[in-house]
């Protein structure tokens, strides 16, 4: 295997694939980067066993400037190869696999010889031949991920809750995550997929990593499901993730359908006030802030307190407040995560009782995005 | 004590002073920020016992927009106070010390009450009344620090070597640092200080921190020495550091005066090649690169090697090579540190023998800046 390529082109693809490679793996060959060169192009693969990323550099795309001298394959130590490629002196570089998988990397007068491994020993990626992929705009998928993945559990005690539950049915995609203290649910209308039916749980970590690969130059993402894998194809990059096995709890009955107190805020203003209040709650043992809604006086006040440091009190500005007066306490970090998912919009928070979960929805659309937070008992 | 101020003005000064404050101190009150308000202005102080920084906000400077309602003093928990001030909602803020050192911080509808401490319990800064300060341009001082501090020892086994030795005599300032493997020496001509005589050792850490406070808007720095302290005054900021006690070793005889091989490089090109070679040497147990100078063939070649990963070989481009042929091995990290101090200039490296220290000087000025590196025996 021998090729010459523009270094900047190669680095871009190398960066995409390197996201999947970790030095913490227990499978030594996975600390390597796999390269397979055929007449049609160069394919790079990185994997940590949970996530695998494969990216192609097309030989026929002139901008790639890939000159193939001989085809073949190799696995090179990823961390070094990355550092070497980034520090080479010239704009192009040549990679040349020699005897015993020794690989010569040259650029200008600089010449590296690196010990490689046989690519035949690298784990194979699953073949996912589902003929009927879903297609979702990349920015919508990225938003959906960022809005739901905040609520996945980080604790391995209930592994199923570390994933996002995706149900595709009757032309709708519903994504739900909950760590049992809070829940995030996002719904997409997919009229083109009205006959599709899937029910899968994707690890939150995989989705977070996928979301990072979805840069602004990507328009659409194709999603293909197989037995225990999901494949996201975006441009020349294929992103594989394993699925979580098991039954996700039924979350539909958790979302309250009635409310006794409702308040409308601009999400960014409320977020800033919550961040201030949490400066003090973070110093106290229970990390709780208190919200007082006085519907008669039309005031909303937030309180944070730390016995050691001091306290904070802030009159919140809101757009509308109606229903019964209420005092409720909650973890401000859950509120911050939820508010960040709403961006610059106005939101409605609906309460039923001081100890019942409350919901946040965009004022303009109560149906497609909902965040639910369980309050904290403080007495 | 009560004052109102533009938040952005206050934050700038707060950031300067906060550099000296650490949560790792064993003296609890030093985790706090001291504020003293008099009719002439507000003085903020932070300290970690080794370094103290004091900065003034002048009441008479209109741009500061400092409105004083009553004078006084307080110590507030620095980390919180910082976070609070940065997150307040409005452009101005009011600080109001009440009974029992409780301090009210208000901005818009946000109201923090923070437990403060009596400023009388804060350690006093030394009074340094030396009537005859040295004045050095801030950019020259910053360069001098960055060129020498790289060579200070990081090991506490010989505490004296963790400092930079400063000798001011006969209108010259000589700064030297060495960790016994390498040495950096910078000389400044100070004709205005021809009668001054000082011989002090300033902790490297203090100088690194001082260098960070020397932003581009500062023209000159005034330096005052006292018994066991040095004070740097830059604009409205006073930077105090303790001095190291003891005798610094005589370093003048370490610098060779003759050479058998000389080579001239452009510093940035050599730095890039050394960085490439060190990618592999860092993986080997002894972290050494080898330089071969063939004066007959007029070639300079650098080699790096790691038994596990591979090796690198690079023909270096140079401006001039003369004298005897030589092969020498050295720690590439020392070379990198040294080269970074030279910036974009051409440098001359002079060697005497494979096991004797070699020197780096700017091609244009061999007298005022010299780096010395001890090679490594590899056989």
TrEMBL record, chains A, B:
It is found in: Cytoplasm. Coiled coil: none annotated. SMART domains: POL3Bc. It comes from the Bacteria. InterPro entries: DNA_clamp_sf, DNA_polIII_beta, DNA_polIII_beta_C, DNA_polIII_beta_cen, DNA_polIII_beta_N. One of its GO terms (molecular function) is DNA-directed DNA polymerase activity. Residues 1-126 form the DNA polymerase III beta sliding clamp N-terminal domain. Residues 253-376 form the DNA polymerase III beta sliding clamp C-terminal domain. PANTHER family: BETA SLIDING CLAMP, DNA POLYMERASE III SUBUNIT BETA. Confers DNA tethering and processivity to DNA polymerases and other proteins. Acts as a clamp, forming a ring around DNA (a reaction catalyzed by the clamp-loading complex) which diffuses in an ATP-independent manner freely and bidirectionally along dsDNA. Initially characterized for its ability to contact the catalytic subunit of DNA polymerase III (Pol III), a complex, multichain enzyme responsible for most of the replicative synthesis in bacteria; Pol III exhibits 3'-5' exonuclease proofreading activity. Belongs to the beta sliding clamp family. Forms a ring-shaped head-to-tail homodimer around DNA. This is Beta sliding clamp. It comes from Lacticaseibacillus baoqingensis. The lineage of its organism: Bacteria, Bacillati, Bacillota, Bacilli, Lactobacillales. The gene is dnaN.
């Amino acid at each position: 295997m021998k090729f010459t390529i523009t270094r900047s082109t190669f680095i871009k693809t190398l960066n995409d694939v390197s996201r999947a490679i970790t030095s913490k793996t227990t499978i030594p060959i996975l600390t390597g980067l796999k390269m397979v060169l055929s007449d049609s192009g160069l394919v790079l693969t990185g994997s940590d066993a949970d996530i695998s990323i494969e990216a192609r550099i097309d030989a026929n795309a002139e901008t790639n400037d890939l000159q193939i001298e001989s085809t073949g394959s190799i696995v090179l130590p990823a961390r070094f190869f990355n550092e070497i490629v980034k520090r080479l002196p010239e704009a192009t570089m040549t990679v040349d696999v020699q005897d015993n998988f020794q690989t010569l990397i040259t650029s200008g007068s600089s010449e590296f010889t690196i010990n490689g491994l046989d690519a035949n020993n690298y784990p194979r990626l699953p073949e996912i031949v589902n003929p009927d992929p879903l297609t979702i705009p990349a920015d919508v998928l990225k938003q959906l991920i960022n809005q739901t993945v905040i609520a996945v559990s980080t604790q391995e005690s209930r592994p199923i809750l570390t994933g996002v539950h995706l149900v595709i049915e009757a032309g709708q995609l519903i994504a739900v995550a909950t760590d049992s203290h809070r829940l995030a649910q996002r719904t997409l209308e997919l009229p083109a997929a009205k006959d599709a039916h899937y029910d899968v749980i994707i690890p939150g970590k995989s989705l977070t990593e996928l979301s990072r690969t979805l840069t602004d130059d990507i328009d659409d993402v194709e999603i293909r499901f197989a037995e225990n894998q999901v494949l996201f194809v975006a441009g020349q990059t294929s992103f594989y993730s394993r699925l979580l096995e098991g039954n996700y709890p039924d979350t539909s009955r958790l979302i309250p359908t009635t409310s006794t107190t409702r308040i409308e805020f601009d999400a960014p203003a409320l977020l800033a006030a919550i961040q201030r209040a949490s400066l003090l709650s973070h110093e106290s043992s229970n990390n709780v802030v208190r919200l007082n809604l006085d519907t008669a006086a039309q005031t909303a006040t937030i309180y944070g307190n730390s016995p050691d440091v001091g306290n904070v009190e802030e009159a919140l500005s809101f757009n509308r407040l109606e229903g019964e007066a209420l005092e409720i306490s909650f973890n401000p970090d859950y509120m911050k995560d939820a508010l960040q998912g709403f961006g610059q919009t106005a939101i409605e928070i609906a309460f039923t009782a001081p100890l019942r979960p409350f919901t946040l929805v965009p004022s303009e659309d109560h149906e497609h995005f909902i965040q639910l937070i369980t309050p904290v008992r403080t007495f």
